[in-house]
Amino acid sequence: MIAIEGGPVVTAAAMRAAEQAHGDLTGLMERAGRGVGEAVRRLAAGAEVLVLCGPGNNGGDGYVAATYLRDMGHRVRVACTDVPRSDLAKAAAARWTGPVEPLADVRSAAILVDAVFGTGLSRPLDATIADPLRRLVEAASLAVAVDLPSGVATDSGALLVEDAPGYALTLALGALKPAHVLQPAMRTMGAIRLVPLGLSAHDLSGAVAMIAPPRLAAPDPDSHKYSRGMVAIVVGQMAGAARLSAEAALRSGAGYAALYGDASELGPAAIVHRPLADMASLDDPRIGAIVIGPGLGRDEAARARLATLIAADRHPLVVDGDALHLLDPATLPDRDCPVILTPHAGEFKAVFGEGSGSVIDRARDAARATGAVVVFKGATTVIANRHRAIVHPGGNSWLSTAGTGDVLTGAIAAMLAGEHGTPIEAAAAGVWLHAEAGRRCGTSFIADDLATALTLTRASL
Ligand SMILES: NC(=O)C1=CN([C@@H]2O[C@H](COP(=O)(O)OP(=O)(O)OC[C@H]3O[C@@H](n4cnc5c(N)ncnc54)[C@H](OP(=O)(O)O)[C@@H]3O)[C@@H](O)[C@H]2O)[C@@H](O)CC1
Ligand SMILES: Nc1ncnc2c1ncn2[C@@H]1O[C@H](COP(=O)(O)OP(=O)(O)O)[C@@H](O)[C@H]1O
Ligand SMILES: [K+]
């Protein structure tokens, strides 16, 4: 089992293609089943294991794992939902010489290994499988899913079973699949670990990757406040939101954060306040990124300011909150300066409509249509540009409190202004810092605490 940070996230079809490109299908199943067997053996500590096998290759992995456990002298029983149907599963089942019990009334065991369905699940589970599976998972003291919990749709993360039971551990085979990073599937999986199968990075070269911690260097010895990145924030009707973004930008490492507009002088004294008589005030070439949207309001003045900034095309932009409701996405593709859009689900729908597929698919489609970096926020956050996507599978659900999105906007703007990588890398760095600050904040914190925590989060890198 190896770390999964930065690794690929691969759809069912791409996984099958990688398997074909590899060629040695028997070898892959051997490695998968053995990897599962080794992990289960370590965790089972001698307790009896029940392996449930389905008709396809997921079931084949189960037969290989059961055979390995038996050969190691472990107490193991096998039950099946159906006879093996794929050639690989037939060959694997033939090497299991013990009894195979029918699923319906099989006795539970302390350790349950679910190898019923993996990436080949094609429709909802019917009750003849779902009911005994749920009973056995719930009766086990440790339930382990092989590749995916049976009942989880690989590419969308949807649940194709009612009252899906919860597993302690899911052993992803070869690579993570979208369901390993998407809700509601993820909440049923317990800890997720990867069993490497030796598939080449080239064969797995999906365009979607798990987020990894950013590499953020300390300021150069000769750095000054502007070289560290200057962030300008357009203030609208609710100045508090803009202040949160400004504080987050500074605590993420920006050297200078200025609020442009009518803001009260509340908040950290380090935040600079400037009037916004006309948009020419934002022509300052030292500005590295402009934030527009947090607390902006949706009146005509706000709409005009956004349109002016987009048309001017003079600075990188981070467009959030209210500005997303005022945005005409058709104005984006021809810009030279990067644009990062940070919608939550409601804002995403307002700009791009419902879209189709998973949040990964929808974010990628939006990025392709606009040329912008799209940060689709939610329990899982997807950061996409025209060519690739980076997924943050969330973490602390206490982030669901007002103002945390404004903090994220500031963190992303700081990374963009500080030129921490390409725009998609800057956006991903901001998302990572924000989530890690959220993890450090624990429970029932407020957005102000989250902004404060960014300083120590940055220090941890
Ligand atoms: N890719 C790789 O690199 C590697 C992949 N490996 C493993 O292969 C797994 C994928 O195997 P797979 O393609 O055979 O699909 P799998 O999940 O076993 O199910 C297909 C079977 O289930 C059936 N079926 C489907 N839904 C059903 C339902 N609701 N109710 C009832 N039946 C249903 C379906 O029947 P059908 O839809 O045709 O009627 C078919 O018979 C993957 O997750 C991993 O574990 C590793 O071994 C090695 C490396
Ligand atoms: N359940 C959750 N789990 C993890 N992160 C979450 C959850 N809910 C919200 N977040 C994160 O919190 C932030 C909320 O942003 P947003 O909805 O724009 O809030 P606001 O508009 O109040 O600032 C986003 O970064 C989002 O990814
Ligand atoms: K499974």
Automatic annotation (TrEMBL):
Ligand binding (K(+)): N58, D114, S150
Binding site for AMP: K377, G378, A379, T380, T381, G405
Pfam families documented for this protein: Carb_kinase, YjeF_N
GO biological process, one term: nicotinamide nucleotide metabolic process
EC number(s) per entry: 4.2.1.136, 5.1.99.6
NAD listed as a keyword: yes
Binding site for (6S)-NADPHX: 57-61, 118-124, 147, 241, 295, 344, 406
Coiled-coil portions: none
Co-factor remark: Binds 1 potassium ion per subunit.
Domain of life according to the entry: Bacteria
GO molecular function: ADP-dependent NAD(P)H-hydrate dehydratase activity; ATP binding; kinase activity; metal ion binding; NAD(P)HX epimerase activity
Domain YjeF N-terminal: residue ranges: 10-205
Cofactor dependence: Mg(2+); K(+)
Keywords for the protein's UniProt record, in alphabetical order: ATP-binding, Isomerase, Kinase, Lyase, Metal-binding, Multifunctional enzyme, NAD, NADP, Nucleotide-binding, Potassium, Transferase
Residue intervals of the YjeF C-terminal domain: 210-461
Catalytic activity annotation: (6R)-NADHX = (6S)-NADHX; (6S)-NADHX + ADP = AMP + phosphate + NADH + H(+); (6S)-NADPHX + ADP = AMP + phosphate + NADPH + H(+); (6R)-NADPHX = (6S)-NADPHX
Family, as annotated: In the N-terminal section; belongs to the NnrE/AIBP family.
Subunit structure as annotated in this protein's UniProt entry: Homotetramer.
Known role: Catalyzes the dehydration of the S-form of NAD(P)HX at the expense of ADP, which is converted to AMP. Together with NAD(P)HX epimerase, which catalyzes the epimerization of the S- and R-forms, the enzyme allows the repair of both epimers of NAD(P)HX, a damaged form of NAD(P)H that is a result of enzymatic or heat-dependent hydration. Bifunctional enzyme that catalyzes the epimerization of the S- and R-forms of NAD(P)HX and the dehydration of the S-form of NAD(P)HX at the expense of ADP, which is converted to AMP. This allows the repair of both epimers of NAD(P)HX, a damaged form of NAD(P)H that is a result of enzymatic or heat-dependent hydration.
Protein name per UniProt: Bifunctional NAD(P)H-hydrate repair enzyme
Species of the source: Sphingomonas abaci
